[in-house]
Amino acid sequence: MTSDKDPLWPQERINQTCSRPSGVFSSKIVTLAGNFTYKIVLLDTRSNKDPVGTVEGDFLGEEQWQWLEMQLLESDHKVDLILLGSSIQILPLHKLLEESWSAFPSARQRLLRLVASARPPVVLLSGDVHMAEASKALCTATTANSTRKFDLWEFTSSGLSHTFTKVIGSGPKPSEGGLLQVSRGWIHELLWTYYQWIYPAAYRENKMQDVYRAVHFSLLDLLFHPIDGSHGLLYRTVDHTGHTVMSKYLPIPLRTDTSPHHLNTINSDDSADDSDSNSLTVECKGVKGQVSIARLLLYRAAVAGPLMLFVVCPLVAVIWFVLAAVW
Question: What is the predicted pLDDT for the residue at 259?
């Protein structure tokens, strides 16, 4: 719980950067009572994005990459946590309908190397997909002298006014006041449910419980335990009525030295300096493991099947009928 004697209210805010001609990316350091400091780093994945299909494509541009490397690798040793925000998802793979960093694998791998090299633990934040989702990767960072395993979390929130299945509308009666959540129709509900069931959600601990379809917003609560001085991060997705519908709690490692730390680091040799991201190899797998080729083929067939049945086939039938009538 949060200590009453030592409330976690911001004591200091430091703006690190501002917008620039090559994009809008920024960072801020916030120091709380209790000697806890976190950094917020926000990326611009639009201004320098390469066209889809570009070989070795990129989202950031080299100037932003250099800036990001400085933000992550040269952070003050007093920073306890880094919140890295991206407008699109980073960890989830194999999404056919949503845009994500998987569109440019080399750029995604470069970002993961920087995250693994950061000294404070990093939590990823994203949006864009019109739903809430909690993703977890099991990562292995390897150099010539060390191997380190750690968990990497990403929290996605996208749907303050509308999602794929719900929208916010006015109450039917003036006496009701406020706003009501309205379904966009059974077709949207059916398509969303079908897509989630067939999607190989390797990065979710629980396939259907770590995703939320309705209108929502998300909160990050930094919790301080006064007895042992430890800290934790509580992620919550809150629905339009104010009820928490999804949550995850992550303990934050105590700041003890300058070695890279990550949430739930597993047996490792941290004697080597991993700050050089270029010499680091990072492999991040979903918490449910790798998705087999057979599973991917089944997933794509399940997406293509209804598309052929309800869209392509009727369209071909109409064209055939028109041509037959004309000729």
Answer: 55
Helices (H), 46-91: 62-73
Which residues are bridge partners to 114 per DSSP? Answer: none
3-state secondary structure of 31: strand
Say what percent of the chain tops pLDDT 90. 53
| d(C-alpha 61, C-alpha 73), whole Å | 18
pLDDT value at position 306?
78
Token digits for 106? Answer: 């080399």
Tell me the one-letter amino acid at 10: P
DSSP string, 4-18: SSS---EEEEEE---
CA distance 231 to 97: 37
HSE-up of residue 257 (Cα within 13 Å, Cβ side): 5
The residue count of the chain comes to 327
> Which of 53-57, 209-213, 244-248 is predicted least confidently?
53-57
How many C-beta atoms surround the C-beta of residue 310 within 10 A? Answer: 10
Whole-angstrom CA distances from 148 to 30, 71, 91, 117, 119 are: 28, 22, 19, 11, 13
